Amino acid sequence: MLGLGLMGGSLALALRALADAPAVVGWSPSASEAATAHRRGALTGVVDDPERAAEGADLVVLATPLDAACELVGTVAGALGPGATLTDVVSLKAPLVDAVRRAGLTARWVGSHPMCGGERSGFEAARADLYRDASVWVVDDGAGSAHRARVEGLWKALGARPESIEAADHDARMARVSHLPQLTSNALALLLEDAGLLPDDLGPGGRDMTRLAGSSPTVWADLLAHAPADLPVALRDLADRLRSLADQVEAGDLDALGASMARSCAWRQRT
Amino acid sequence: MLGLGLMGGSLALALRALADAPAVVGWSPSASEAATAHRRGALTGVVDDPERAAEGADLVVLATPLDAACELVGTVAGALGPGATLTDVVSLKAPLVDAVRRAGLTARWVGSHPMCGGERSGFEAARADLYRDASVWVVDDGAGSAHRARVEGLWKALGARPESIEAADHDARMARVSHLPQLTSNALALLLEDAGLLPDDLGPGGRDMTRLAGSSPTVWADLLAHAPADLPVALRDLADRLRSLADQVEAGDLDALGASMARSCAWRQRT
After folding, report:
1. Cβ separation of B187 and A249 shorter than 8 Å?
2. CA torsion angle A162 A168 A171 A173 (round to 10)
3. Please, what's the b/e burial string for A143-166 (b: 16 or more CB within 10 A of its CB; e: otherwise)?
4. Which residue, A79, A151, A223, A263, has most beta carbons within 10 Å?
């Protein structure tokens, strides 16, 4: 397990909680975080450098922010055993595909993107049930079927629901389901701050809408650096919709407003 | 209690759960909802028309949507006893102030706006602890101090935190803390629907951001009909911020994006 924050720490805890728990050797850029994870039973061993964590492992998981994960692909390439599988839990896949191709690991890489998380980060926020019932996008670039089966089996063992998708489709989808809500929450929070309002001035709905604004800027920094081309398109689309709503409110066009609310209410109740 | 949906039903349940529970006589435009509330112990009596619910009451609560509440002010005016206090739980106050002035009830009306609720509506969604720890804005138009004390006492008895505000200030604030998040959630939901996405495609952050999209269009219809002038201003302000973010993403201006995220993250952690 390379990286022991919210995602890697939770994965290590979940693996160690299995009835047939595998050995989990961990590395973190923060030695104290690795020591904490070890002490809390998330790891069976701690190592000082990422290559050593990869040596002898059946499955190597990159659970760092995006740029670090792309770099680690090259770092661990030489240390991977012949049957070892490489996965990651990064929320954009096109940059990983590039890094995996450069490292010559396409046959053994099967990327994962679990659709869960939280605005808190670090091992302190990790919990063994983070992945239970989560959807997990699984992306590969021509990996062998044994590697795909291993990664899908991992998620199923933890109660998550793996589903395959193309890397480009995945990233375009993420622009709308992840990046767009994130930046909308940031923009709303800044508007409220500029109006002299505090989180305590909000009701539960407003708190829901600004919860993502508390997400870690560090985690998002390289996700935004590699933002899919669909993100600015989606942001402008939402801006246009808000302007239309402003026009409708001003014109007292209650039919249009009511129709929008009825349609989005019906959508929200679909599963 | 006039109206026995989420707000009125929860208030009736909470009052009846007090150690020194008062009698609570209820009326609802839906006779079956009133019967349900009575059967579930929220009411000590049910009446067929709103005037009869107001007769003999120390405190009359209007817990209907905005337009109905404005109309009920006139309906109950003649039935209020000399020492009776009139309050409401409507989330805009300027239209209520107008109705109360027309009915000659300014001395006895002390409006309330509890900052709680939920996207579900009707008595089925009501619960006795809805108001616990909620902020409640209290607005009056020159009411007597005994009436103000009675309404503040009501909310304190239920564990809520009443705070006074001017009607106009209240409504301008609501444009940003309530209407704006609501319509933003609707717009985001419609964008996702138009992109062929479903609620199940979202992670927890995206689900937070679209939860309000499930709010009742009926409840919002007359709130939007009386929308404060600040609402279109706030909607366009948010649209401008989203366009700026789109430009920054496209330009790869990570410093600007990081600064926005850091500022909104710090704001979200303030209390």
Report:
1. no
2. -80
3. beeebbebbbebbeebebebeeee
4. A151
Helix residue spans in chain A (DSSP H): 6-16, 31-39, 50-54, 66-77, 94-102, 145-157, 167-174, 180-194, 204-211, 217-225, 230-251, 254-268
Sign of the dihedral through C-alpha B63, A199, B93, A205: negative
- Find all residues with CB under 8 Å of B145, minimum gap 6, and list them: none
Tokens of B139: 């607005």
Averaged in consecutive runs of 10 residues, what is the pLDDT profile of chain B (271 residues)?
A: 97 97 97 97 97 96 95 97 96 95 97 88 95 96 97 98 95 95 98 95 93 91 91 98 98 96 96 73
Strand partners, A139: A111
Is residue A203 less than 8 Å (CB to CB) from chain B?
yes
Separation of alpha carbons B73 and B103, rounded Å? 7
CA dist., res. A216 & res. A187, Å (int) = 15
A230-251 helix and B230-251 helix, angle to the nearest 10 degrees: 170
Q: How far is A48 from chain B (nearest CA, A)?
A: 30
* DSSP string computed for B201-222: GS-HHHHHHHHGGGS-HHHHHH
Tokens linked to B16: 């009846």
Q: How far is B246 from chain A (nearest CA, A)?
A: 4
Residue A1 CA to residue A59 CA, distance in Å, equals: 9
Q: Give the integer Cα–Cα distance in Å for B256 and B232.
A: 26
pTM of the model: 0.80
Q: Is A221 on the interface with B (CB under 8 A)?
A: yes
The span from the CA of A221 to the CA of A260, in Å, is: 34
Residue A245, min C-alpha distance to chain B (Å): 8
Output the DSSP codes for chain B.
-B--SHHHHHHHHHHHTSTTPPP-EEB-SSHHHHHHHHHTTS-SEE-SSHHHHHTT-SEEEE-S-HHHHHHHHHHHHTT--TT-EEEE--S--HHHHHHHHHTT-TTTBEEEEES---S--SGGG--TTTTTT-EEEEEESS--HHHHHHHHHHHHHTT-EEEE--HHHHHHHHIIIIIHHHHHHHHHHHHHHHTT--GGGS-HHHHHHHHGGGS-HHHHHHHHHT--THHHHHHHHHHHHHHHHHHHHHHT-HHHHHHHHHHHHHHHT--
Cβ burial of B218 (10 Å; 0-12, 13-18, 19+) is: middle
User: With an 8 Å Cβ cutoff, are B246 and A227 in contact?
Assistant: no
Chain B within 8 Å of A10 (Cβ-Cβ)? no
Q: A4-45 pLDDT, tens per residue?
A: 999 999 999 999 999 999 999 999 999 999 999 999 999 999
